[in-house]
Design goal:
By secondary structure, this protein is of the alpha/beta class. It has three domains: about 55 residues, no CATH class; about 375 residues, Alkaline Phosphatase, subunit A, CATH 3.40.720.10; about 80 residues, Arylsulfatase, C-terminal domain, CATH 3.30.1120. Helices cover about 35% and strands about 15% of the residues. The protein has 19 helices and 20 strands. The strands form five sheets. The chain has a ten-stranded mixed beta sheet, with helices on both faces. Strands 17-18-19-20 form a four-stranded antiparallel beta sheet, with helices on one face. A hairpin with a 2-residue loop joins strand 18 and strand 19. Helix 1 packs antiparallel against helix 2.
Amino acid sequence: MTLNHVRFLSFGIVLLYTTIVRAENVQDRAPSNGSRVLRRSDGLQRSRINEPTVLRSQRIVDQRAASLMRLAAASQKSGTAKKPNILVIFGDDIGIPQISAYTMGMMGYRTPNIDRIAKEGAIFTDSYGQQSCTAGRASFILGQEPFRTGLLTIGMPGDPHGIQKWMPTIADVMKTQGYATGQFGKNHLGDRDEHLPTNHGFDEFFGNLYHLNAEEEPEGYFYPKDPEFKKKYGPRGVIKSTADGKIDDTGPLNTKRMPTVDEEFLAAAKDFIDRQHKADKPFFCWFNSTRMHVFTHLKKESLGKTGMGIHADGMVEHDGMVGELLKQLDDLKIADDTIVVYTTDNGAEIALWPDGAMTPFRSEKGTTWEGGMRIPMMVRWPGVVKPGTVYNDPISLIDWFPTLSAAAGVADIKEQMKKGFAGVGGKEFKVHLDGYNFMPYFEGKEKKGPRDTVYYFDQGGNLNALRWNDWKLSFASSKGNIATGTREVTAWAMITNLRMDPYERGLEEGGEAIKFLAQNMWLLVPIQGKVKEFFADFDQYPYQTGSTLNPAGINYGMLRQQDAMKRLKELETMKPSR
């Protein structure tokens, strides 16, 4: 509350006290039978024995003053309170054990700066991303299951498939609340101009548009040397753009630039934060490191830091950059006014280990086993999240859209989006957000997190599994990695209790696994309700079908289906009018 608020309230209380004392003196002089009749709000009457004028006046003043204070506090909270800055830091393909806050140095190195976020805030044990880069990043910034947005798998150069105009981002909401918005580093939500972050709520963007190995392809031995081929099919360079339409290609992200490109992105993010601080404007900054996606290229100063290989060396470098961002908040004295989230997009990538992560969870990135979906996640939220907190309830990247919107002042964003939400610049959105607002849970107002269900869609858009509370039912599963994986559908849904068996080993290694499965078939009934719940209003809101890197689904059956739909439409036009 500002000094002017305090002065105003003090004056009001004095004035209120004087008025009440005068009124009480008049009442005391009025004829009385020894008691006063007071009228309750329900219309009934009760009696109060006279009390001394001063005490009675003081009591009423205290009550009225308290009411005024509550009113002023509520007013300030709803409209005039300082909005928190928001800094979201993403790694890439980083597994849970790669953060020493989870494994206490077991991997042979530590990440003290990332750990600091957990120490000064909270760490999550049951945090979920998606099975691939694009899906994970889309779920965070769009707040919708990638099955709705169609952003289920990695985007390739020139692909028209990407973020669409009808999809609101967190940045779109932040703009309505007076925030400056900036995105720095990896985007991976489409590479055409219409897909750029600055066409979707961000004031400025500086970053790359693909996974690192796609950026490196033009340097490959077998890559065509024809400049026209590269122009047509090759990746764009590192893009700098602004919301006014300016787009600058700063050059390719080649293997020469890769060792230090995160330093470029970090410098841009720090500059953005510094400018908004000087302008006294709240900011939403999304920093996306390229670490630790393959293939890793490090500068000489980072190589050999840990003695545990290039991946560990890269993690230490990445942790240092997180430390620079946290130090900047300290130096600007805005750490207490800034929400900091650290996480990543998908589960650990093991396929190219040791240039890859590791995880105790089953399988890896590209699958719907826990190893493909579980991610590190932590948040520092001064005044809301108690330092040193550990959250065991499930949370998804999708949940940060409504949670951060609530922090910025829009607590009912899900309801508003369903009815129709007006963005800045004449934008109109009407979508179904799948995320939940965790802010009441973080504040201690709710004992349990709002999410009880997690949907596991694979990169082809198949619903492979569903988690409901502690239970996971897998209708299908993947064998292999993100490139070689095949989908297998079992006769029965495979049932796992993720508290008893978080690493999903029981069904294959447990001595009574089939008995356990048979005894818990009752789960199929409520699980069907959860599937129906997701699809209940699916046709009422826009959606985009997913794309695929494998055209194996193209066959005569698909053509016959298209022909059948065409014939049905023709029959519909032939129906006699009534």
